[in-house]
Amino acid sequence: MPTSSRSNEGLKKAAILLISLGPDISSNILKQFPDKMIQKVTYEIANMDYVEPHMKDKVNEEFMATVAAKKYVLDGGMDYARNLLHKALGSQRAQTVMDTLTELTHLEKPFSIARKADPQQMVNMLVNEHPQTVALILCYLQPEKAAQVLSEMPERMQADVAERIATIKRTSPAVIKRIEKVLEDKLSNVIDSDLEAVGGVKSLVEILNAADRGTEKNIIDELEKDQPELAEQIRASLFVFEDIVTLDRAAIQRVLREVSNEDLALALKGASGEVSGMIFGNISKRAAETLKEDIEFLGPVRLSAVEEAQKKIVGHVRRLEEAGEIMIGRSDEDAIIV
Length: 338
Prior knowledge:
Elements (H helix, E strand, L loop, with lengths): L2 H19 L1 H8 L4 H12 L6 H24 L1 H12 L1 H14 L7 H5 L2 H8 L4 H10 L2 H10 L2 H13 L5 H15 L12 H11 L2 H14 L1 H11 L10 H8 L4 H9 L3 H8 L4 H14 L4 H20 L16
Helix pairs in contact: 1-3, 1-4, 4-5, 4-6, 5-6, 8-10, 9-11, 13-15, 14-15, 17-19, 17-20
């Protein structure tokens, strides 16, 4: 079975198991998963309307067998566990359980603190280490993070470390534990794996959305002088496509005059019912019927195309606001005097 298919099947089984265990137990289990795994499993749970009783029983039985297999591994190793499972379950079911156990062991890999560390912190920590030590540690990092760390290493080290990664075959568990302990001691001084993620563009956008328009404009104008890319990222995030429902009728109609039918159809392909209703309610009946036909005619489209069309419309909204032709409402702004 291809790796991706097996992975998808594993995610579905994990979702079924968590559903059957109930919210209290499942929430504690989910806390132990890496962030990406949490996202994938919760997505499966959210999209699972109903679980057949026989499927739930099957998954629960496999889970219990996997727990037993893990104990067998601890008692006598993988071969010992495999032999016991073959005798108890038969060759096919035993192999399924062993495959599941193998997939789960990545959650318990060495260097877990390094897997949580920021790539730049890892670079600073490893740049003066022996290339063999660096190579060993990179083998246990996520491929994307390992690539980032390696790319930031001095050029003279990159090829040396890469060669050592390619030629590593076996390493003593004692050596791994010793290196892991040293690395943990160093990293524990600069990171805390339990720190809550705060700040960032999302936090600033939330603050600016609650501020008055003058404060927002002043901050973005100042940022634009030194960090234009950051300023643009914030500006784009301040008003998202779904926020179009906050515009008044005149503003929406003004925005629609700037938008092509092609972009509007694409944008509405991925829009909520509230947004679609708002748009259809601000165009003629005939135009609405034509637009609905255009959307249906599109068929399946890439999410990236929908997001790009929505981004264009948001761009029109921001430009019209900056030109003073429309207003984006703020809850605490001064009332308009006419």
